[in-house]
Write a structure and sequence with these properties.
homodimer, alpha/beta, Rossmann fold, DNA-binding, DNA-binding transcription factor activity (chains A, B), Lambda_DNA-bd_dom_sf (chains A, B), transcription cis-regulatory region binding (chains A, B)
Chain lengths: ~375, ~375
DNA sequence: TTGAAAGCGCTAACAA
DNA sequence: TTGTTAGCGCTTTCAA
């Protein structure tokens, strides 16, 4: 059964297609009786207007997009996506309890903010993701179907055709800063966050020797690493360089270094991690090696994701206003009404330190 | 600066628009040299194909939709969505820690499954929500822009034009069962879940007197309520009817009844709650009244959301395979390739009881 | 208040 | 292998 169109409705209602369109889009511009005829005909014919056609005609889609780069690859579930059929087996992973080490993470909280704001504004949300690093044309696909697009940075972001996109559609980078492109950047005050962490470790816990762990693959991570180096120097702190990893590598070299440091007893008094997920991993490795946190070593994270609060011990971290960031992205995009920015915009949002117990504090 | 189109690219590359289209959609059908010309021209012109135009021409959009009904209204944040500007203030709620009583909930875990499967299949996800119960034409809007649509049931779902939609686009109802419409229904084995809960309370904790609390506004809730009534009768258990609320009301009448029962000391030995969120609320009210769980009364939930596991005490509940349900929805929709079902389909998924401590068990 | 008609940008026969 | 061309369904001037 063919889908019915304006033409079908128009014929059935005995009016023109223009009137059908008006009956839906500008109800007040149409005589009540006419409108009723149209609506009735539409109901009988199961008329569902084509958003594609409308988008084409209007030059807008009414949707805002959020693009995440190879999220799947970074999450354990990604690999289990095949077994959709054997749910009856008792040991199916679908029955395991929710695991907050996998969800919700940083991107999820931002996504949630984005969705809230879009719904608030009556925009629909389009979610896209590349399955493989090579598929960077998928971002162009989604860019072509929205009035504005928010993008998460990631390793591989450099390959994305962001320079072209931002000339065609309003583009927001989240957790990233770019002053060369005519797009908006929303990021948090990484420097202030790292400083407050370091100061806390020094001033409250009298640490004289610390290091930094993390993959320096994005703007955020780089900012934190730089802030660490700088502030630690400024405070005259010794740095256990054995651990420092300022490589751009995607592999987790720091794990090797950390294990070596454990084996050779070269651990610093404290480790500042690039983010909560890294901190979680570091803590697991240390714990497995019989090293206690915070008795034997202090750990800090960054981001303030849910898992940081519920890990044992809870992680002392810096919380980004993630929901807010997502909402701001949607707001900025919506306000552009489809018109790309003509100069770089940036929004640096404040952060707040959250004291857990991994730094040696007692939080009741 | 006008967005460039196939025509612009075609002219610049010195080919026809068809060739431009082919160069992108069927790269192998175009001579290498020609394709290169096209791609170069496209890059120079910042060409971003219009998904609307493609959707129109192809009759498909490549997106799958997920529609939630008035989610915002049910969540505390919904009301705070205005203050997007004053983030510098120290007490901004954006800095509060993630609150799992608000997110992620039942729908979020399903949504996540839906997203995972869509990404896996290379489909984009369209998220839509009605801001107000009256805005039920928004679902038609999103139905018009996807190749398949999943819908959450809710109070108010009855007002939705589901009968018309399911004749135009493949439709999946999640957490709902409908044998009258030509759509698919994905729901869990509510009856088995309730039975295992009741049996546990009776057989392990020797409960002889229990009741049920919840708003009976959706298929799931109704199923659980019915299963409760039936199984409790079958096991010859006394029911504290003072608490039973089988009304269809949206207001939370059960709160009143619960408070009365507390005041008059009419509480049963155990309360089976319609879902985890209700259980959380019930526990809060009881705790505030100085009643201890599980010492003074046993509580069970349903769903297995994250907050149930981390509440104190952890809630004994029944876990639905939520991620799986979302994934199944996406899979079914994708497989229809835009063609509506011509008869009702239903998928009842198994559940599993998860022992917490709210039932009186000790889980270390 | 309604109708006629010209696009919107892309795709896919069909031809060449 | 590439070009021509007829739509896809809706919106929106402009006229009536």
């Amino acid at each position: 059964m063919r889908k019915s169109t304006v033409y079908d409705v128009a014929k059935k209602a005995g009016v023109s297609t223009a009137t059908v369109s008006f009956a839906f889009r500008h109800p007040d511009k149409v005589k009540d009786k006419t409108r009723k005829k149209v609506l009735d005909a539409a109901a009988i014919l199961d008329y569902v207007p084509s958003a594609s056609a409308r988008g084409l005609a209007r030059g807008k889609t009414g949707a805002l997009g959020l693009y995440s780069f190879d999220m799947l690859l970074e999450r354990p579930q990604g690999s289990e996506l095949e077994d959709l059929n054997a749910l009856n087996e008792q040991n199916d992973s679908s029955f395991t309890r929710p695991n907050m080490f996998v969800y919700p993470l940083y991107v999820d909280e931002i996504q949630r903010g984005f969705e809230l704001e879009c719904w608030h504004r009556g925009k629909t949300v389009l979610l896209g993701t590349a399955n493989s690093p090579k598929e960077n044309n998928s971002i162009t696909d989604i860019a072509g179907s929205v009035d504005g697009l928010a993008v998460f940075p990631n390793r591989g972001t450099d390959d994305l055709p962001l320079p072209q996109l931002c000339r065609t559609v309003p583009l927001v980078r989240i957790g990233d800063l770019d002053n060369t492109l005519s797009c908006a950047s929303i990021y948090c005050d990484n420097t202030a966050g790292i400083i407050s962490l370091i100061d806390h470790l020094i001033d409250i816990h009298h640490i004289t020797d610390m290091s930094f762990i993390g993959e320096i693959t994005t703007f955020d991570m780089r900012s934190r690493f730089n802030a660490f180096q700088q502030h630690v120097t400024q405070r005259g702190i010794q740095v256990t360089t054995a651990l420092l990893d300022n490589s751009e590598a995607t592999s987790q070299e720091w794990m090797v270094k950390l294990c070596e440091a454990i084996d050779t007893n070269q651990l610093p008094q404290a480790i500042v991690c690039a983010n909560d997920q890294t901190a979680l991993n570091v803590m697991e490795i240390l714990t497995d090696a019989g090293i206690r946190i915070p008795e034997d070593i202090l750990i800090t994270g960054f981001d303030g994701i849910m898992a940081a609060e519920f890990s044992r011990p809870p992680i002392t971290t810096v919380r980004q206003p993630m929901e807010h960031m997502g909402r701001l992205a949607a707001k900025l995009l919506d306000e552009r009404a489809g018109i790309p920015w003509d100069s770089p915009q940036s929004y640096k949002l404040p952060v707040r330190m959250i004291i857990g117990e991994s730094c040696g504090c007692k939080t009741q």
